Amino acid sequence: MAVGLNHYLILAAFIFSLGILCMTIKRNAIGILIGVELVLNAANINLIAFSKFTDGGVAPAGQLAAVFVILIAAAEAAIAIAIFMNFYNSFQTVDVDRGDELRG
Amino acid sequence: MEYHNTLAIAVLIPLVSFTILALFGHRIGKPFAGYVATAAIGLSCVLATQVLVGWVSADDEVRRQLIDNAYESRVTWADFGVDAIQVHVKLDSLTVLMFFMVTFVSFWIHFFSLGYMEGHSDEVDGTSKYHRFFAYLSLFCFSMLGLVVSSSLLFLFIFWELVGLCSYLLIGFYFDKKFASNAAMKAFIVNRVGDVGFLLGVMLVFLHLGTFDLDQAAARFATQFHNGTGLFASDFTLFGYGLATLMGIGLFCGAMGKSAQFPLHVWLPDAMAGPTPVSALIHAATMVAAGVSLVARIFRLLTPEAQMFIAVIGCITLTITALIAIVQTDIKKVLAYSTLSQLGYMIFGMGVGAWVAALFHLMTHAFFKALLFLGSGQVIEGCHHEQDIRKMGGLRRKMPVTCWTFFIGVLAIAGFGIPTLHFGLGGYFSKDEILAVAYERAFNWPPTIEGESDAGHAASNAPSPSTESADATMAASQVRLISHPETPVARGAILADATGASTTEHEEHAGPTGTEQKLRIAAAMPVLPAWMYWLPIIIAYVTPFYMMRCWWLTFCGKPRDEHVYEHAHENWKMWLPLVVLAGGTIFCSFFVFRNLIHDAAGVLADATAVVAIDGEAASIAEAGDGAMMTLSHGPGRSPHDALTWQVGFAWVIGMFIAWLIYKDGLALAERIKRACGPVPRWLEQKLYFDHIYDNVFVVGTVSIVAPIANAIDKFIVDGAANATAFVTRVSAFFTGRQLDMPVRKGDIGLVDWIVNAIAKLTMLLGSWIRRPQSGRIRTYIALTAGTAAVALLCVLFSDVIVAVCEQIKAGFNQLLAGDSVVAAQSATRLGD
């Protein structure tokens, strides 16, 4: 059976859901970051899959968008980790449930 | 098995070892984690040796077949539709040799590390870092080997960065110590500076040559050079350099970072903060060599100006670092600066066109510098982490093996050899050849064709369209370069072309190849200024001096610190690698390695802008099938004759002076130092490079950015706040007047009522809204995702929702219609 667009999409949806699940149930800050990466990369899979199945796969737009996402993700991770460092300095933990000082 | 497969497997084995150690290292524990890494690199070394042996015994035909097979096995790494990036194992003599060198030296450094880490505290916060050390070593080996076999500049860059990362990790291995983590950051950041240039160079290659593949890029570069298109058509200049030159300089910037060339040399001495085996592995044998091998790979993409730039940088580096090495007192710092100086020689060699010699020096240096570093590691370990050579002395009796293997290393770096007998250690031949080529470039340049003795007459008789210019060139240079004696061909034409009008009418990959072409290129290359010859010569005297000083102070004389002396001891796991590497140092002086590098120079046959010079060959035919020029051999002009007396005995003189000064301890040296005034202090302060960088870049950045940030803060941020306050005050004046003024009772009641009502409403809303505002990120994420999901569902099933709404609306309408009918009926009834 040939691998079609749907297979990519299902894979991406699966990874996306895993990412959301990971973000929701992990209390470890790094775990949440991993969840974010999963979500971003699920989006990347979609971008590349659509690029592959559009116009005979010659247009690099989807791949470029994916590269761009990777770039932004790297910046995002850097900022997130900086925040976690400060979080750790303030709370001596990376358990995000402990940092609920902004609750209403 | 095909060699490219063997090499690919040998690259991947350390990666497997890294994966194992990274995932299960803490369970494998000490010392088995070390065994895993050592076994992995050992296996790679066996494979590399097999390839090396096979390659040496193969003839040209077989080799060409193997190279073709390697090329055929290329895979598409990324396909961008218009242009695919393809990679394969780059198989040639240089790869095979470098691969062997890296695996061999790495294996023995791993072995040494087993002993070195045994007695080392490797715990941070109660957890062992032992496995981490070996995991990093494995990752480093993988990256370095990948770098060696990369056929594409893009992959070269990727592995390049990986190597930089490993260097960072290993220098900062004792990250709980401030100086180590600072040194790691310094190494990383300084390397980034160089890598920006490298990346720009790679981008220029891709932009103008349209490929990452080294061979393809060289071929297209040649075409553009001949046709004056692409890179050479651009009139973009920066600092007076054209685009093609800038590309070469950009690529070289990467080498400047990794090979620690002036002005990016400041990180390497600080990198000695890492464990000593790391210093040996990265900062002596392999990583710093990557820069030189990069220049070797991109040699065909250089222009004469770029090459001159490289030579100048190399010359400056080798000079200042050798001078700094004289006054260093930390045994590892002496070696670090000597490494810098030797790297300067290699880069200088590349810059003057001594392609073979520079790589030969790289090979010999890898062995003896690894040997010296491991020797110093044994000393430091044996003396309980004492690194100050002023406190050592007399260790000869306690560490005989270390002492004498170290001495072999000292001899090798000093250039031990006996001129005219063609006998000596590798360092002698390689350095001598670099200097010989420099001599050629400085005093015998540009080359002209030489027949035998009466070539001059033959020349003037030769039928040539521009005899005058030929004769003028002859007269100006007054030197002759040997070539095929049987081809005194139309050299007038060659020389006329050589003056620069050569780049027309050539098609794809055009131009005559071999001797004629090389002569024409050579004539366009500038003459080396004399100081760039004399500085390396002088430093050739300084090198033996500071190495002998280091050795003598460490191992000979009287013990200067009883405590250190008492503790000194040796460990077989650590001296066995020393013995092996000392053997390697001696062995690599044989010409096996040089011949292989010489074979690799075949690729330079299609170099179009610059020419490599073979310092040993007697004829062009011998110099790699016309791939390189040869030195002049005319009477009284041969560089080798001149060098015999200029530096042939530098090693004896330098070492003897060091012995004279230090044979009775440090007293005499102190007196000399005082007599020299402020110079030693400048050298001790490393010529203030760190101070300059600190003041220019760190303080400079702060002093420029701080006022700007301050101004933004004061005028924009504060200004906005003040303006808001002002507006608020003015509006409060009016509204306050209106609302506070007790005109009528009811008014206030109304306002209060409104206020209270709003407050109550707000509170109600707030208490309702605050519930999801738990402050917990996870709740927010769940809410966001849930909302998004609901929104998505709404969009997906919008037709269903619309249909339902239609239904409801219809029903409602019906109801309304029914009501109106009823109303109408009742109205009519009333009317009746």
Protein model, in words:
- The complex is a heterodimer of chains A (104) and B (832).
- With 104 residues, chain A is mainly α.
- Chain A has one domain (5-97): Helix Hairpins (Orthogonal Bundle), CATH 1.10.287.
- Helices cover 74% and strands 0% of the residues of chain A.
- Chain B has 832 residues and is mainly α.
- Chain B contains 33 helices and twelve strands.
- Mean pLDDT of chain B is 77; it is low at 451-512.
- The N and C termini of chain B lie far apart (112 Å).
- In chain B, α15 packs antiparallel against α16 (400-414), α15 (355-382) packs antiparallel against α24 and α16 packs antiparallel against α22.
- Chains A and B meet through α1 of A and α32 of B.
Low-confidence stretches of chain B: 451-512
Number of domains of chain A: 1
3D shape of chain B: globular
What structural class results from the helix and strand content of chain B? mainly alpha
Helix content of chain A: over 70%
Output the number of helix runs of chain B: 33
CATH topology of chain A: Helix Hairpins
**Number of E strands of chain A:** 0
Strand order of the largest sheet of chain B: 1-2
User: What oligomeric arrangement do these chains adopt?
Assistant: heterodimer
Distance between the termini of chain A: 54 Å
* Most strands sheet of chain B: 2 strands, antiparallel
Strand content of chain A: under 5%
Q: Which blocks of ≥5 consecutive residues of chain A have pLDDT under 50?
A: none
Biggest sheet of chain A, open or closed, and with what strands and sense?
Answer: none
The first-level CATH class of chain A is given as Mainly Alpha
The rounded distance between the terminal residues' Cα atoms of chain B is: 112 Å
The tally of strands of chain B reads: 12
The number of helices of chain A is 3
